C-alpha cells in the first residue's frame, strides 16, 4: 500500500522556541523524499509530526486524503524506522519481523509467511531462525526494515537509519533502500544530514534550515542550481566569490559576466569545485598559486590563490592524473553556466 501526504501550513513550538515555521509540502504516493539539513533544522521534528509523535501547534497533516493531525501513531497508516533498530534479542528474526503483525491479531501461520516474505525481500531469506546477535550491523538494519514493511504501511518514515553504519556498508544500504522502495512502491520519507546519501536515494530532496524549507526538488537541480545561498553551501563544497550588479550583468574580481543580478546590493557568485578547471571557460580566472593539493582517487582537490584576488581561496577538483604540486602556478577558467548568483548574506 502507499498514499500521498499533504503537509499544510504546519508550525510547531517547543515552549517559546519555534521548531517549524509554515511548512507546506505535497508528497506523491510512492515518492522517495529526503529531509536534509543540519542538526536543529527541524527535520526530525517534521518526521515526528508525520508519525504522530508530535501534534503540530498549527496546521494539518493529511495521509491518503484523511486528516491525521491528531491521530495517534498506532492508528496511523505509517511506520517509523529509527537509527536504533530496537530488535528483540530473545526473538528469532522471523518473530521480530512478524511482531507488528502479531500485535495486529494476525494468525501464526500467516504472519510467519509474511515475515519470511519480507526477509526474502531484504536478502535474509535463509536467516529466519537466527537471532539479532548473530547478525552484522547491516543485517540488523535489514531486519528492522523488513519489520517496518511487514505491516504494509502507506508511508514509511526513516529517521537517519544508516547513521550507525560504516561508510562502505552505508553506501551499499543506500542502494538496497532504493531497490526495496522501488519493489514495494511505498512512500518513503527519510531524514538525513548526509548530502551524498540524500542525492543517492531521493526522488526529491527537501533542504531545511532553522525550521523552514529552503529548497526542494530533484537531486540534480538542488545540487546544480540551488534556490538559496544556504542550500548552495549545504549541498556540498561551494566557492563563494564576491560580486556586484553592473550594467551588463554582474562584476566579479575576474571580470564581467552576463548573468542576471538578483539585487542591486552585494552579491555572491557560487561555483562548485568541479566547475573550475585548467581548460577553456567563458569566465577566465587567470593564474593561481597552488596552496595544497590532495589525491582523492577520482579527482585532485586543490586550494588555490588567484592572482586577480589574492585574498580569495578557491577550491578546484582537477584531473586525478595531473595533481599539481604545492607552490605551482596554474591558469584557471570556469563555466559561468554552472554558476548561481545570490544576494550576499
UniProtKB/TrEMBL annotation:
GO biological process: putrescine transport
Entry GO CC: ATP-binding cassette (ABC) transporter complex
GO MF annotations in UniProt: ATP binding; ATP hydrolysis activity; transmembrane transporter activity
Domain ABC transporter: 5-235
Keywords per UniProt: ATP-binding, Nucleotide-binding, Transport
Transmembrane regions: none
Protein name per Swiss-Prot or TrEMBL: Spermidine/putrescine transport system ATP-binding protein
Amino acid at each position: 500500500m502507499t498514499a500521498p501526504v499533504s503537509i499544510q501550513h504546519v508550525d510547531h513550538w517547543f515552549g517559546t522556541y519555534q521548531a517549524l515555521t509554515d511548512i507546506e509540502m505535497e508528497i506523491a504516493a510512492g515518492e522517495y523524499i529526503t529531509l536534509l539539513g543540519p542538526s536543529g533544522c527541524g527535520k526530525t521534528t517534521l518526521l515526528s509530526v508525520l508519525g504522530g509523535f508530535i501534534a503540530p501547534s498549527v496546521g494539518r497533516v493529511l495521509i491518503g486524503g484523511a486528516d491525521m493531525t491528531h491521530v495517534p501513531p498506532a492508528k496511523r497508516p505509517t511506520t517509523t524506522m529509527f537509527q536504533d533498530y530496537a530488535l528483540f534479542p530473545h526473538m528469532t528474526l522471523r518473530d521480530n519481523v512478524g511482531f507488528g503483525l502479531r500485535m495486529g491479531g494476525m494468525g501464526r501461520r500467516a504472519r510467519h509467511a509474511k515475515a519470511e516474505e519480507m526477509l526474502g525481500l531484504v536478502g535474509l531469506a535463509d536467516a529466519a531462525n537466527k537471532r539479532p546477535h548473530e547478525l552484522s550491523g547491516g543485517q540488523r538494519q535489514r531486519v528492522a526494515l523488513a519489520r517496518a514493511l511487514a505491516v504494509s504501511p502507506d508511508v514509511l518514515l526513516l529517521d537517519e537509519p544508516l547513521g550507525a553504519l560504516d561508510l562502505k556498508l552505508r553506501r551499499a544500504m543506500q542502494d538496497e533502500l532504493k531497490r526495496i522502495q522501488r519493489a514495494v512502491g511505498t512512500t518513503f520519507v527519510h531524514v538525513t544530514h548526509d548530502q551524498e546519501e540524500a542525492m543517492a536515494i531521493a526522488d526529491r530532496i527537501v533542504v531545511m534550515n532553522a525550521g523552514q524549507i529552503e529548497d526542494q526538488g530533484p537531486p540534480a537541480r538542488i545540487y546544480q542550481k540551488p534556490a538559496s545561498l544556504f542550500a548552495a553551501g549545504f549541498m556540498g563544497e561551494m566557492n563563494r566569490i564576491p560580486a556586484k550588479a553592473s550594467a551588463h550583468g554582474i562584476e566579479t574580481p575576474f571580470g564581467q559576466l552576463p548573468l542576471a543580478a538578483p539585487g542591486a546590493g552585494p552579491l555572491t557568485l557560487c561555483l562548485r569545485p568541479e566547475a573550475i578547471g585548467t581548460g577553456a571557460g567563458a569566465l577566465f580566472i587567470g593564474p593561481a598559486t597552488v596552496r595544497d593539493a590532495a589525491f582523492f582517487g577520482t579527482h585532485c582537490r586543490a586550494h588555490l590563490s588567484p592572482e586577480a584576488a589574492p585574498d580569495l581561496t578557491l577550491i578546484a577538483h582537477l584531473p586525478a592524473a595531473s595533481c599539481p604540486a604545492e607552490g605551482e602556478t596554474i591558469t584557471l577558467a570556469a563555466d559561468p553556466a554552472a554558476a548561481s548568483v545570490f544576494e550576499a548574506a
